[in-house]
Amino acid sequence: MPLIEAQNIVKIYPNGVLANDRVDLSVEQGEIHALVGENGAGKSTLMKVLYGLETPTSGTIFLRGEHVHIPNPQVAIDLGIGMVHQNFMLVDSFSIAENIALGMESTAAGGLTLDRQKAIHDTEALSEQYGLVVEPTARVDTVPVGMRQRVEILKALYRGAEILILDEPTAVLTPRETQDLFRAIRNLVTEGKTVIFITHKLREVMEISDRVTVMRDARHVGTVVTVDTNQAELARMMVGREVFMVVDKPPVERGAPVLEAHDLTYVNETGRMLLHNATFKVYESEILGIAGVEGNGQTELIEVLTGLREATGGEAFVDGAPVLGAGPRKVRESRVAHIPEDRLTNGVALLASINDNLIVDRYYRPPFTRTGLLNPQSIRSNGGSLIDRFNILAPSGELPVSSLSGGNMQRVVLARELSSSPRLLIAAQPTRGVDIGAIEYIHQQLVDKRTDGLAILLVSADLQEVMKLSDRIMVMYNGEIVAIFHNTPDLTEERLGLYMLGAERQPAEEMEQYQ
Ligand SMILES: Nc1ncnc2c1ncn2[C@@H]1O[C@H](COP(=O)(O)OP(=O)(O)OP(=O)(O)O)[C@@H](O)[C@H]1O
Ligand SMILES: [Mg+2]
What we know:
The chain is of the alpha/beta class. The protein folds into 3 domains: 4-239, Rossmann fold (3-Layer(aba) Sandwich); 255-335 and 423-515, P-loop containing nucleotide triphosphate hydrolases (Rossmann fold); 343-421, no CATH class. The chain contains 19 helices and 22 strands. Strands 6-7-8-3-9-10 form a 6-stranded mixed beta sheet, with helices on both faces. The chain is globular. It binds adenosine-5'-triphosphate and magnesium ion. The site of magnesium ion has 6 residues, from helix 1.
């Protein structure tokens, strides 16, 4: 008997979108069940139905063979179902232990005061049991995203989750954190838990899951045993066509330098040097990729360049004009576009419409504003054409971004930034959270724009992505640029790895040659 089974689930949202169309899902006790499908296929919706966050229009759910109603998350929790969302839902100003114990103590103790000592103790015990390392007393908003995620998982376990739903947990993780998470997931299963796991990375599906369910266009396409399938077959089931994932990248002569950075340095509040004398250029018609284990200065470099952080030292010029220290708007006005790493907090205004989100960086310019007045018609037509080109799944551009699926929210940011006719594009993790069809499209867009003259600075935790797209590759280690190479076939992952881990460092004269 399956542990949990959903039959014939139909979900029609109030705006008329059919998100689940007679979907079946059956998950066995103790398995790791992957759920895959394109952006907007209905994966999160199905999980929200199991967790009681959305009421299905029709359909039935069985838990251990018994018919259950799950009208809200409290009922789901009581039934042993826990969920970690695509967008986290922690209370930022509380400590980790408080977040984990929050909402559990008041009923037991009959009051609202939280026993802090007990919360810390329970958190430590749980953290130990599952190998999910957290700092119980740290405030949630001060810890890295990987730890926040572990907090969410612990919180669900603390509430007695037997079935744990993880909605795209690895989209925000570095490769190393992903491996840690996988280890924890395996521990959970050893302890008798069951895991449902959503991802767009088929490599991960192959690595971690026992079975895979594929959804497409709100429907269940099939469920297969992982060892009996492969990435190509899964891709075909997801997209309904062959996916090649190759980019057509013609050779092109690079032009003049667009970005010139000299000795960029950033020292944080506690005196740690996170970026040290970074000197490099990005030229017209080239993609300069940054390779490096995350946390080696890449984020600081980008935030300094885009005006989100103030550099401690150094200079940067775009087309010869200085850009440091003047704030994000000034940087944009120098025709620098930025695809931020954390698009759902820094990239979109969730309650504003899709159309408005597509022009937030340029609403004050023609054609969107003329003689001081916004021009709704041009805002609408701009929205319509970008929704089309970037395949954003939305019934109308007038709807709020919050009604989009996670991957479609990402596309809104990508569409806006790629359409702003920039001179320099700073792209951080550009394909995070989007499906394989969209990855193919975004890769080709980046390469085409580079061929047409755009200068692109690319940061990605995915080394294969960096190697596939870049013309030159710059390696960062411990806040420093330790090597720059032309992306020639002899530059292998292994060779880059030596520099990324700090085992090798290019001599200064040699680096000079590749500037
Ligand atoms: N609150 C909502 N109101 C209206 N429509 C919604 C809402 N949430 C999701 N949808 C729509 O339902 C469909 C399925 O969305 P869902 O979030 O389930 O997709 P998903 O498979 O999780 O995609 P992704 O991989 O992008 O996260 C999409 O067309 C989406 O726009
Ligand atoms: Mg989703």
